[in-house]
Design brief:
The complex is a heterodimer of chains A (520) and B (115). With 520 residues, chain A is α+β, with helices and mostly antiparallel strands. Chain A is built from eleven helices and 20 strands. In chain A, strands 5, 6, 7, 8, 9 and 10 form a six-stranded antiparallel β-sheet that branches. A five-stranded antiparallel β-sheet of chain A has the order 11-20-19-16-17. Chain A has a five-stranded antiparallel β-sheet with strand order 12-13-14-15-18, covered by helices on one side. In chain A, helix 1 packs antiparallel against helix 3 and helix 4 runs antiparallel to helix 5. By secondary structure, chain B is an alpha/beta fold. Chain B is built from five helices and five strands. Chain B has a five-stranded mixed β-sheet with strand order 1-2-3-4-5, sandwiched between helices. The chains are: A alpha+beta (520), B alpha/beta (115).
Chain lengths: 520, 115
């Protein structure tokens, strides 16, 4: 086998794949070594960092980058031949083998470049797909944790970053929500001086935040929505096969694009969370309103001897006013109107407490000063310090000519006599729950046929007109005096209309409750 | 969340399963290649990479996996993958890995079909 004929047979036998994967060049180098008596040889090409290995013979132990100063023989093109032997060659190999080595090296290099280009083209598709997927995730994923992870994973993988971290604004600081490739700073305050170097949505290499300790080439972007920073996305150390380096300008743009997507995603997830919270509160309020509807009477227990009507209009779905009746011992009836401080759910809960406590107490005891003191103690113990209840309770026996009453800091009840005179059922003690150990008085006033009693909450008298004038007790008394002989249901309806007319579209400031009773 | 790659190998009859846990980047890819080449030297012709513990692969990691596939083709062996996240599965298809390797939904299906 001679060097002159063997290269031709090598060419005849070689398949496409042999040319592509370096088999032809490797075998040509083996032939060359055999003919020259060398241990090994390798072809190098002049590159940016020196001579880079293209292919070695089978026994080659040449490194991928030839050490500076190593002896090389010229081959056609920019290729060089390194030989490992006892007698280094001082002249180029014969023309046929030199041409074969050069052609095989060139083909192998071309194939490698083609592969690299194909890889890069495919990876561009991966990048576009990733951006598209993140866009889809933005539109469809409302789980904040999942979104944070998705954005971090995509950003780190597409930028070939060795490390990454994702932070979310959380109260007064930014909190780490995910990290890849090593430790990251767990949190940083909103006023960290390093944040000043971050322009919303713009990637920067020099912010001095040190989010990824030990990183050599950090790149950080502030995730901002409408100018307000919602989080931070940090990557570091762009990988290559030979180590890590800084990120390129396209990398910075890609990170900024991710930050834009992340900002929309975070805002969407945040809005979704708020909507869910609102929905939950509305459901709770609906439930509370249903409970309260169960507590307030559908209709008051009128009889031929005693006519009673009640009416209530809360400002919110759930109110803080209460009215109702309780059967007392000896055939008497307790009628109550109460007003809890505040409105909404906390007030409604206290209304429920009052309702159950009052019914339990009146089941076994007479309405008197001691009962009210006990109720005060119970309310004080079961409510917060800023919550209290004003309440008026009248004790009516249609067979008796007097009614008893207890008033704990409530508006005075009104008794309109048939002659138009008015008697007030004034408070004898502090509102319930305001002061433990408070004392009260049980009082009695005459109650004859035709006497009209009105118990009401301050939502009626404190209803304001557009001129900021209150409806007031005087107007209420005058209204009742004029209609004292009308059917109670009509008086209630007219009072509702009068108050609404007086407010003239002003928003209702407080719950409104009225109970009217009249002895036949 | 994700630190450097951890590997475990289960040598079975005719197939070696490599379990990955973490980021397949340059370092992670090199570690997989080292283990894969050792298994090839031991005589294994069928390798299964179970990526259940991997959520992220970058381009360097993919290029190393392609090299392993090429090496497997040279020795007339076969490289297969299983338990890929949808993102990694899509990436492998776009990058052409699916053309020269097999992708299975789970390990039992893979082992059954590779055996």
């Amino acid at each position: 086998m001679t060097v002159k004929t063997q290269p031709w047979s090598l060419l005849e036998e070689a398949s496409d794949r042999d040319w592509e994967n370096g088999t032809v060049l490797c075998r040509a180098l083996d032939l060359f070594c055999e003919s020259q008596g060398a241990r090994a040889a390798a072809v190098f090409v002049e590159g940016q960092n020196g001579y880079e290995l293209v292919q070695g013979s089978q026994a080659s132990k040449f490194a991928s980058l030839l050490p500076a100063g190593a002896e090389l023989l010229e081959l056609p093109g920019r290729f060089r031949l390194a030989v490992d032997g006892d007698q280094p060659l001082r002249h180029p190999p014969d023309a046929p083998i030199a041409l074969l080595l050069s052609a095989a090296a060139r083909l192998q290099r071309l194939h490698e470049r083609l592969k690299e280009q194909e890889f890069a083209e495919n990876y561009k598709v991966v990048t576009l797909e990733a951006l598209y997927d993140v866009g889809l995730a933005v539109a469809s994923t409302l789980d904040l944790e999942k979104l944070c992870e998705e954005i971090l994973l995509r950003a780190v993988s597409l930028l070939d970053a060795r490390r990454g971290a994702f932070y979310l604004a959380d109260g007064g600081s930014y909190t780490l929500r995910g990290t890849i490739g090593g430790e990251a700073r767990p949190s940083l305050p909103h006023d960290d001086p390093g944040l000043q170097a971050l322009e919303p949505g713009a990637g920067t290499e020099r912010c001095g935040l040190d989010l990824l300790p030990g990183a050599r080439f950090p790149l950080t972007v502030a995730i901002a929505y409408k100018g307000k920073t919602k989080g931070l996305l940090a990557v570091a150390d762009k990988e290559s096969r030979t180590g890590v380096g800084p990120f390129s300008e396209p990398d910075r743009r890609a990170l900024e694009l991710f930050a834009t997507q992340a900002a929309i995603a975070l805002e969407n997830a945040n809005l979704h969370r708020q909507a869910l919270e609102k929905e939950r509160l509305e459901r709770e309020m609906q439930l509370a309103a249903e409970i309260q509807r169960g507590i307030l009477p559908a209709r008051m227990p009128s009889s031929s001897a005693l006519e009673i009507v009640g009416w209530n209009r809360p400002t919110r779905q759930v109110g803080g006013d209460y009215y109702g009746s309780v059967s007392l011992h000896g055939g008497a009836l307790g009628v109550v109107v109460a007003d809890v401080t505040g409105k909404g759910m906390p007030a409604a809960l206290l209304v429920a407490t009052l309702h159950s406590a009052l019914h339990l107490l009146l089941e076994k005891r007479e309405p008197n000063a001691d009962l009210l003191a006990t109720l005060n103690q119970h309310i004080a113990e079961s409510s917060s310090s800023n919550k209290f209840i004003t309440m008026i309770l009248v004790d009516v026996d249609p067979r008796a000519d007097a009614l008893g009453y207890l008033n704990a800091g409530h508006n005075p009840g009104l008794v309109i006599r048939p002659d138009g005179s008015v008697e007030e059922l004034r408070a004898s003690g502090l509102p319930l729950g305001l002061l433990r150990g408070a004392t009260y008085e049980y009082r009695r006033v005459p109650f004859h046929p035709g006497d009209l009693v009105c118990l009401y909450s301050d939502g009626i008298t404190e209803c304001t007109s557009p001129d900021d004038e209150e409806f007031g007790e005087k107007r209420l008394v005058s209204f009742l005096r004029e209609r004292r002989i009308e059917p109670l249901s009509e008086i209630i309806q007219e009072l509702d209309e009068a108050v609404t007319r007086f407010a003239a579209g002003q928003p209702q400031g407080d719950d409104q409750t009225v109970v009217l009773l009249r002895r036949a | 969340m994700t630190d450097s790659l951890k590997l475990n190998v289960d040598r079975r009859d005719g197939v070696a399963v490599i379990y990955t846990d973490g980021y397949i980047n340059n370092q992670g890819g090199e570690e997989i290649a080292k283990v894969a080449y050792e298994l090839i030297d031991e005589g294994y012709k069928v390798l299964l990479l179970n990526l259940a513990g991997t959520k992220i692969v970058n381009s360097i990691g993919i290029s190393i996996l392609i090299e392993i596939i090429e090496r497997m083709i040279e020795v007339e062996g076969r490289l297969a993958f299983c338990n890929l996240t949808p993102t990694i599965d899509k990436t492998f298809h776009i990058m052409g890995l699916a053309q020269y390797s097999s992708i299975f939904p789970d390990e039992s299906t893979a082992v059954e079909q590779l055996g």
